[in-house]
Amino acid sequence: MLIRKLKKFLNNQSLLTKILVAYLIIFALYLLFSFSLSSYSLRKSQELFIKQIADNFIDSISEDIELYLLTRLDIYLKNVTRKINDVKYILGLYVYDQDGKIIYVYRKQKYSNVHFNIKDQGFLTYKDKNVGNIMVFSRKIDIVDQEAGLPILHKTGYIRVDFWQNYFDLIRKDLVKVNFLAYILFAILAFILAFYFSKSLTQPLHKLTLAAKRVRQGSFAIEDLPPSTRFKEFNELIEAFRSMIQAIKLREESLRQAEEHFRIVADFTSDWEYWKGPEGTFLYISPSCLKITGYPPEAFYKDPSLYERIIHPEDLPRWHRHRRQAHVENRQVKDLEIEFRIIRADGKICWISHVCNLVYTKEGRFMGYRGSNRDITYRKELEEKIFQTEKLESIARLAGGVAHDLNNLMAAVVGHAELLNMKLPPEAKEREHARKILDAAQRASMLAEQLLTYARGGKPKSTHVDLNKVIKDVLSIQESSLPEAVRLELNLNPELWPIYADPGQISQIIMNLTLNAVEAMKGNGILEITTTNLVLNTPMGGDIPSGKYVLLKVSDTGCGMDKETMSKIFDPFFSTKDFGRGLGLAAVYGIVRNHGGHIIVQSTVGKGTTFEIYFPVIEEIEEETD
Amino acid sequence: MIKFYFFFIIFFLLNSGTIFAKKITVFFRPDIKLYQIWARNIKTEFQDSVILIPVSAKDDNSLSIADSDFIVSFGDRAAQQIGNSPNKKAIFLVSDPRFCEKADYCLTLFPDLNITLSQVRRIFPKFPIKLVVTQRTKDWVEIYKKSLHSNLEIQKLDVGEIREDLRKIFKSKSVIVLLPDPVFLQEKILREIVRLSFITKCPVVGFSKKMVNYGILMSINYKYEDFLPFIMKIIKANFNKTKIDITFPYYVVVNKRVLDFFNIKIPKSNNIIYVD
């Protein structure tokens, strides 16, 4: 448990702390071991030491004792007593004769004696109440000389030396104290050394870590690396680190250059390029994103789901199918295309041509999606317009043919009806039938005429026309028929340029547009007619070339139209009214086209509709003569 | 009364003049304390008449004695350097008896070998005697050759192999007589002699009281404190042209405990000193 806690504690500690903790543990164990054994070993050592000292001492006096035993002259004991006096740890000396009888005693101080059988016992310890423990050592002294053929003499005696054990005990205790102090001293020394050693180990590592952090922050200054250390391994590590930094620096530089080149290309493109990572976050979005979506790239970086949220809800199912398809098929790295609409930040609809593929590394690791979105709104509008134009052209051609044949047929019908009427007596009942045939034929002729106007615009009898005057003339006729709740607002530019047009056909345009507006407002609203001069320096809307124009704008606050309706309003015979013939706006379209003008319709359901008609200003045209 | 004092003074001066007018040169080894004390005492006694000349132990140059009327030489080295024919009145105190030939009066530091041997024979009449000589003392024997008896064996001791030689000497039972050599006073050798003496039960006769204290049976020696008064006596007698008995007392110092060990009885005599 303790080891586990220690491990847990050391897990997040620095190397320095770990080394110091290891040192402390080893030292504590060593201290425990040493102190538990030192007492025992010191006691044993002390015993051996005292025995050795006793042996040495007895050796040193044995010659004197031998001579004393021979001569019994005290002179030989002087040296012995001097030696005993010189050392503190010997309390006394006994000399015994060969019978074990004490023949000499020397005691430095008073202490109790003990019965000691000198012949049998070599060693004895006993305790005296005054001096403490006493250790008794003895030796037999044999005087034998058989060398050089000398006569043999046996003369034996014994020597006994009393040692003061307490003296050695005190030394031992002092040794323990010195030992302990030495332990503490060495511990401090070792701690300082361990600290110094650890510091010299960790310092270069710390500096290397700092250098690595600086590298991560983009600083490649190799001067930040630690200087050479005293450790070969560290020097090699520092050198390797230095080489690594230089290599990273070079790679970073080349990478930066490559990225710069890529960005120059990617940022320049008008397409919205992006790279979405495997986790679904955007790794790169080109700046064109803002232009196409109205959202800055940062908005997509921050909220990747925004991408799907701006896709038009009607196109979203297709988009999801495309995505699934991309996942299934794109393993072959094939570009998959789709066109869909997005809702820009400003609410406008934008058509996108989308191409994407999945990105894989050489090793086959999935790296995300790479996509390219191109704004094709303009192209789509052009296509729509072309389609409308072609449709109207074909209808006009059909209507023109029909109207021409119908007109010819009606001319015959009208002629014959008039002849019949003329030949019938005035009171003849058949005259009524002839008149009805004539009326019907005349209405059919008028219908044919209108069809021709749509198809060819009729043959305009163009002259310089003041559009404001034509508007006022038409309105003076229609004003009385306008419902009271419809407010007419005229914003006519008094400096309006004259246009080269057929005043009758222009009147028809104004009449048809105002009638439609009044009908759309259902007798309640604002009818606004505006004229203004306009100079287009650049083509507008794709099909209105640059140049001078007189703009006629007719707006109402009526019910408006949906897109489907708007796409058909210029079709002949298309009408939302119950009894309309569906030729009014078709005729307007035909007249405008015959005058080289352009018409734009903007309508919002429930809010109203605006027709903008651009009449080209032709400054120098010779007046056509009838 | 005044006349009496006057004559007394005149007499004293005349007499002292006959004594102190002569020049006494004292040669001594200053590194030997006993010689130094004796030389100073002579100087104190005879004052300006005395010239003290220290003799170096290492210097071999001959000493000048031209201006001296009487020469006192302490030690073998001084005697050696004075030369063979001093042609002066001289008193030598030497250890080597061979120097005595050059002096009018000669005192040896140790008793004459004849004296020693006679004492040994008196105490150990039946014991064979071994006379132990060293390189230093081997030639002394020549002087006493005539007086040596047949019951005497001369044993030469090589100082380099002294322990082995001692063992050989103590091999047979006899009285061992050591001829004076400082080597025998070395404690280590002295102890070995004592040890062998006790083991082999051979009594040893030495030449110094110190040897007896260490356990040698006996020594025959002079008392050094007797020398100075005797030398003074000789000088004064010589200048006063009076005759003097130059017999010098010696002593037999015996260790009583050792004597008991050997169980020997010594005939009574006045010059025996017992130590315990």
Poorly predicted runs of chain B: 6-20
Strand order, largest beta sheet of chain B: 7-6-8-9-10-11-12
Please give the number of β-strands of chain B: 12
Structural class of chain B: alpha/beta
Query: Quick one: overall form of chain A?
Result: rod-shaped
**Global outline of chain B:** elongated
Average pLDDT of chain B, rounded to a whole number, is: 81
How would you briefly describe this protein structure?
With 626 residues, chain A is an alpha+beta fold.
Protein described:
The complex is a heterodimer of chains A (626) and B (276). Chain A is built from 15 helices and 17 strands. In chain A, the strands form 4 sheets. In chain A, strands 2-1-5-4-3 form a 5-stranded antiparallel sheet. Chain A has 626 residues and is α+β, with helices and mostly antiparallel strands. In chain A, helix 2 packs antiparallel against helix 3, helix 10 runs antiparallel to helix 11 and helix 12 packs across helix 13. Chain A folds into 5 domains: 159 residues, Beta-Lactamase, CATH 3.30.450; 42 residues; 107 residues, 2-Layer Sandwich (Beta-Lactamase), CATH 3.30.450.20; 78 residues, Orthogonal Bundle (Helix Hairpins); 157 residues, 2-Layer Sandwich (Heat Shock Protein 90). Chain B has 276 residues and is α/β, with parallel strands linked by helices. Chain B has 2 domains: 107 residues, Rossmann fold, CATH 3.40.50; 135 residues, Rossmann fold (3-Layer(aba) Sandwich), CATH 3.40.50.2300. Chain B has a 7-stranded mixed sheet, sandwiched between helices. At the A-B interface, helix 2 of A face helix 6, helix 7 and helix 10 of B.
Write the layout of secondary structure elements.
The complex is a heterodimer of chains A (626) and B (276).
Chain A: H1 2-11, H2 15-71, H3 75-86, E1 90-96, E2 102-107, E3 123-128, E4 132-143, E5 155-164, H4 165-216, H5 232-268, E6 272-276, E7 282-285, H6 288-293, H7 297-302, H8 306-309, H9 316-329, E8 336-343, E9 349-360, E10 366-375, H10 377-423, H11 430-456, E11 463-465, H12 467-478, E12 486-492, E13 499-501, H13 503-521, E14 525-536, E15 547-556, H14 563-566, H15 584-594, E16 598-604, E17 608-616
Helix pairs in contact in A: 2-3, 2-4, 4-5, 10-11, 11-15, 12-13, 13-15
Chain B: H1 2-20, E1 24-28, H2 33-46, E2 50-54, E3 70-74, H3 76-82, E4 89-94, E5 105-108, H4 113-123, E6 129-134, H5 140-143, E7 152-157, H6 162-169, E8 175-178, H7 187-200, E9 204-206, H8 209-213, E10 218-221, H9 227-239, E11 251-255, H10 256-262, E12 272-275
Helix pairs in contact in B: 6-7
